[in-house]
Amino acid sequence: MSVDLIFKIAAVGILIAVINQVLKQSGREEYSFLTSLAGLVLVLFWVVPYINQLFDSIKTLFAL
């Protein structure tokens, strides 16, 4: 896992937090929820290949 991925996740988290605050202050809580969900889905798309690699490593480690 590279450090770039951690920085990208942190940047998305900061950006989503700012957008959520702006949307909540303007009274658009439903859009705030949708932006949080979109940020979560984006980060999951980045992390899923690493989780898959982890499971493959565990499989080969225990020879399943």
UniProtKB/TrEMBL annotation:
It comes from the Bacteria. The chain crosses the membrane at residues 6-23, 30-51. InterPro entries: Spore_III_AC, Spore_III_AC/AD. Keywords: Membrane, Transmembrane, Transmembrane helix. Signal peptide: none annotated. NCBIfam families: spore_III_AC. This is Stage III sporulation protein AC. The lineage of its organism: Bacteria, Bacillati, Bacillota, Clostridia, Lachnospirales.
